[in-house]
Write the structure tokens for this entry.
Amino acid sequence: MAELLYAVNAKVYPITGHYIAKLERGAVRWPCQEYRAALCLILAAKDDTDLGFHPPQNRRRAAD
């Protein structure tokens, strides 16, 4: 977790270990776009779904 914390902080803006833990537990299901982009870059994921993130239901319906 510490490596991820330091890597995201270097790419975006400060993120805490507490927030990373929330992401890991699924307490935060749709982080801001900047965090998602940084996580994709750092973890070599092609998109948000590779990270396990999905937009809230109301956003999915609006996109359809």
Observations:
- The chain has a mean pLDDT of 83.
- The helical segments are 2-11, 17-25, 33-43, 48-51, 57-63.
- The first helix runs from residue 2 to 11.
- DSSP finds five helices and no strands in the chain.
